[in-house]
Each structure stands twice: as structure tokens, then as C-alpha cells.
Amino acid sequence: xxxxxxxxxxxxxxxxxxxxxxxxxxxxxxxxxxxxxxxxxxxxxxxxxxxxxxxxxxxxxxxxxxxxxxxxxxxxxxxxxxxxxxxxxxxxxxxxxxxxxxxxxxxxxxxxxxxxxxxxxxxxxxxxxxxxxxxxxxxxxxxxxxxxxxxxxxxxxxxxxxxxxxxxxxxxxxxxxxxxxxxxxxxxxxxxxxxxxxxxxxxxxxxxxxxxxxxxxxxxxxxxxxxxxxxxxxxxxxxxxxxxxxxxxxxxxxxxxxxxxxxxxxxxxxxxxxxxxxxxxxxxxxxxxxxxxxxxxxxxxxxxxxxxxxxxxxxxxxxxxxxxxxx
Length: 327
Known about the structure:
- The structure is a single chain.
- This protein is an all-alpha fold.
- It has a domain at 43-257.
- The protein is 70% helix and 2% strand.
- The protein has 14 helices and four strands.
- The strands form two sheets. A two-stranded antiparallel ribbon has the order 1-4.
- α11 (258-271) packs across α12 (276-287).
- It starts with 9 loop residues before the first helix and ends in a 13-residue tail after the last helix.
């Protein structure tokens, strides 16, 4: 008697599991975002500020993931574009009396232009060579800001007094109001990332990451797409920079050091490259989890460091990596 053959192959059985996960994320993501809106009503002021900072750094980390996770380029100077956005808005607001909302398009455009200009001559570099060059960019930017370029960057002390925006007569000045603003912008960026993953541009980024030679053979202008990845990531980071300037009411070179670029790089690696949930989890691990252990004083960073090491040993692909074959 013949043994019945199971017609369902492993590949076909995996497809329903993947679609189930995708459907769950489509429901769970917006639900968690809506729950986040309750933070100002349920938590003390300190946690409202932490929630606002989490939203800002999530946006920057997602922009870092475009370059590192999707296009596969080692950018260890991403804090430069974050800083360009913050300084552009602060300078236009404080020195030229622009309404802060009017500075946002300029900050985005200037950051994108700088991302394209700086990346154009270096995108042919690979791996650690590109990484070293971007470290140099970060060092140059910090030194320039510290030396008060054109007398408008405030030197080592930076710039103070950046105000929140005014929308339809409503001024966003308190931490709660800024939290809602940051949370809405985070939702917009998440929507953009979702559409990028589904677009031809996003797929091309990943083709280049996985096999640049094959992509070039098929007629893809790898250099042009790499520059586009840097420009897009820089634009989003510049937007986050404006939010950062409003959140702290100040900007200074100390907020955009090489160590800040390392943190952004680590968020993507720890969370999971090319994975939006992974990047958000990585950001929470970097900025939210340490606040839970404030009672441990300086030892909380030791516990945090050990936790990071364990994550990279047990989950070298990241906490929540992108699913395989997602092109």
C-alpha cells in the first residue's frame, strides 16, 4: 500500500506563515502607535520627554537603515546629516527670524544635497574604506561647528532658544505637545519606509546590496542609486534634526559626535538590518531600556552593555531581522 504523499512543500507551507506575520504587523504596528499617543496622559513628564526623544531617534535610525540595511553601505558618519538639519533650523530661526516650520523644507533639502555631494565621490569605496571616510566627515563637521563657521553656529556652546512651531494658532511649546508632533512625524516616516520597501527604488537598493555586479550587468546604475540612498537617508535625518532642535530648544556640536553615529550604526545592527520593527526595537533598547534601570546608577550601563553583547551572540542577525527573500 502506497504511503500518502504530502503535497504541501516546505516552501508552500512557509508562504502562509510569512503572510500571517505580515498581516499581524500591519495590525499591530498602527495599534502600538495609537497606544503610544496615551503616553502623555499615563506617564510622568520625564517619560514624556523620553518618548519624544525615542520618536526622533527612531526617525534617524530608520534613515541610517536606508544606507546600511537596504543599500548595504557602511556609513559611520550619519550624525552629520542629523546635525545639518538641526543647525539649519536653529540658524534660520534664531539669526534670520524664520518661523520654525518654514525651516523644515530647507533643512531637508540642504541635508539631502549634502548627502548627495559628499557621497558622490566615495560610494565606489567598499566596506571599511567607506566607513573610515564617513568617520572623517563626522570629525570635520564637529570641528567646523565648534569653530563657529561664519559666526553663526555658536561655537562649542552651540545655539539656544529654538522655539516650537505654531500651527493654526496653536504653539507647540510643552514636552507633551512636542511629543505629539514627534509621534505624528514618526508615523509619516514609517509610512514612507513601508512604501519604500514596496517600491522599485527600495528593491533596487537591495539588489545592489546583495549582488552589485549582477545588478550592474542588468543595467542598474549602481553609483547613482547609492548616491540616491545617501540623499534620501540624509533628508530624513535632516527632518529629525529639526525635531531635535525644537525638543531641546538648543543645538550644540556635542549632540552630533562620532559616538552618536556609532549609536545609530549599532541600533541597526542590534535591531536587524532592513527591518522596521527591528530598528524600532533597537532604538528602544538604546534609549528607553537604560531609563528603566536608573536606580542602578552607573551600573545600568554595565548591565546594558552585557545585554547588547548577549543579543549579538545569541541573535547575530539582529533582534528582529528582515525576512529572507524580501526583494
